[in-house]
Amino acid sequence: MDRELILVVKMGGLGKTTLANQAFDDPAVKKHFAVRVWVTLSPSFQDRRAPQGHLQQVASQTRKSTPRRAADTSNCDWPKMMIKSVLLNKRYLIFLDDIWHKRKWDAIKYAFPNDKHGSRLMLTMRNNDVASASCANFGWKVYELMPLPEEESWKLFYRKTFEANSCPPNLEVISKFILRKCEGLPLPIVAIGGVLASKDIRRVDEWDLVRRTLRVEIDSNDRLRKINKVLSLSFDDLPYYLKSCFLHLSVYLEGHVIKCMSLIRLRVAEGFVQEKRRQDLGRSCR
User: What CATH number belongs to 4-144?
Assistant: First the structure.
């Protein structure tokens, strides 16, 4: 079986990465492929760094099952050569998340051998033109995600907002308005659901404030900007002490694995974690 390219395409917020992650972690998929590698391609990388950055991430995963080899760092093509040699004669699944530009794919695609073992390369991207241009020299399938139908949107909204399968009668009108503004996009539904979950369901005025804020912010915007506005609203609703912690995450590249203890030490050093006095601890335990 030939190697195949699988493209999951559409704008951000539709759940491309979530869908691909479910397939990637499926037990049957784990059993079927000898090597599985997941790499998030950050837009901040420059093309010259792609082989040493993105390909090195792939290399660090695939080399675990092979004897260590001395890296010829003087040869800029070494990452491609090494990855190709490691994957050769193996059925592999390589997942590359968030391809923004065709040139980024062109810089790394020749590292993956086509040895007719039924390997798969799975890419998520937002641009249909990039998807079409990426298919050259590959057998390929394209999955274009669509917004959730109304019934599925309600189910997701109920689950994230009320942890139930229904909406309180006093909030039905407001909920319908808010959900309609999300246009079936999972990301804003989950984000606004998180905001509303923290509100008192008996306080219709709190919910109406969210509704009025959304109406002012997104009535005149396109779909992508609506997502950004909803996410901004969920950020603005965070307690002040969590906002600093959230913004601190911007120092990491997208897809970077953050070690828990390292993050805690950094935040303590930055002063984000305040020492509690005994009386404060007593109050928090009441």
Answer: 3.40.50.300
The C-alpha angle 98, 19, 198, rounded to 5 degrees, equals 95
**Averaged pLDDT, 233-243:** 73
Q: Is 72 exposed, middle or buried (0-12, 13-18, 19+ CB in 10 A)?
A: exposed
CA distances for 82 relative to 52, 59, 69, 88, 253, angstroms: 12, 7, 9, 10, 24
Indicate the range of 15-24, 66-75, 259-268 predicted with least confidence: 66-75
CA atoms of 174 and 195, how far apart (whole Å): 14
pLDDT in tens, 20-79: 888 999 999 999 998 888 888 765 544 445 445 666 766 666 666 555 555 555 566 677
Position of tokens 């950055």?
53
Helix (H) or strand (E) holding 283: helix 278-284
Q: What single-letter DSSP state applies at residue 138? A: S
- pTM (2 d.p.): 0.67
Three-state DSSP class for residue 88: coil
Strand segments, DSSP code E, in the chain are 4-9, 35-40, 92-99, 120-125, 139-144
Return the domain boundaries, the chain: 4-144, 150-237, 241-284
In this structure, which amino acid lies at residue 53? G
pLDDT of residue 120: 92
